[in-house]
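User: Before I run my own analysis I want an independent prediction to cross-check against. Here's the chain; please return only the structure tokens and, at the end, one sentence I can use as a sanity check.
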Amino acid sequence: MWVYQPPSWLPDGHSQTIVPSLWAGRTVPRSGIRFQRERWTTPDEDFIDVDRVRPHRQSVPAAWPLLVVFHGLEGSSQSHYAQGFARYALTQGCECAIPHFRGCSGELNVTPRAYHSGDFAEIDWILRRFKAEAPHRPIWAVGISLGGNALSKWAGESGAQALHLVQAVAAVCSPLDLAASGRAMGQGFNRHVYTRMFLNTMIPKALQKWKQFPHLFDAPALQKAKTLYEFDDLFTAPLHGYKNTEDYWLRASALPVLHKIQVPSLLLNAKNDPFIPASSLPTPQQVSSQVSLWQSRHGGHVGFPSHHWQQSAQALFMEMPSAVGAWLFHHR
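Assistant: Structure tokens:
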């Protein structure tokens, strides 16, 4: 098990969350990762954009092992964690692919639906398409935050079928109990800082969706939303077949199906994650024997800043992807 120790000057969950995120805005644009973008047509005649980066070597592309990274809420291939996993994959001679959830690649998707925390059907379609490209190459998948809940939900719902598609999966800082995390995000500092940050991009994108499909939801009410609960009640839940926020948070959570997972799975969470109450983290009794629980005291939300950041700005983000990547690639 990886034992994470934070820098002494980042003592709590908020600092371990915020500083890496702010630092990423300065370092990621200069990271040197050059993705190639593909556009895939979905079964419902929509599209997703997939960013890929391959190792520089002379070999048949179909033979390259593949690491698939599912990003978090409002994330993309430019998120610091995506760049970190891409860099780690390249050091291991692997290809890395980052599929963008609908509307997250910089262009609005064309159907009424968007994306959500329990979208395991989309995960399944994406992984099956990757597998069909080269049926014999190994594939690993990692999901961050929202993407990790969706990936874990997929692993639980798929059971033994997951073994036909991936070698192993990992979920990093994922809100596996959406109700507990949703309540936490609606209170105090979280509401005024993190929730506001998310809504600053989510509401404008939702209003663009309303322009595509007038009367799809109550736009004036959505403009007044101050919490993720309100946003999900007005937008996410009704657009994706849920009755309301409570129904969405209950049915989309991965926690109830973790005991059904049959593919090697890693669940990494920090107990000081501001987004996820430590009391809501899964216990060994709630997961199958195929699930490894890494629950560190520190790390924040997708932070895990390294002690070695002074060596290079990129090193600030590499400790966690390296630890998780090593666990994944151990399962071949």
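Sanity check: The chain has ten helices and eight strands.
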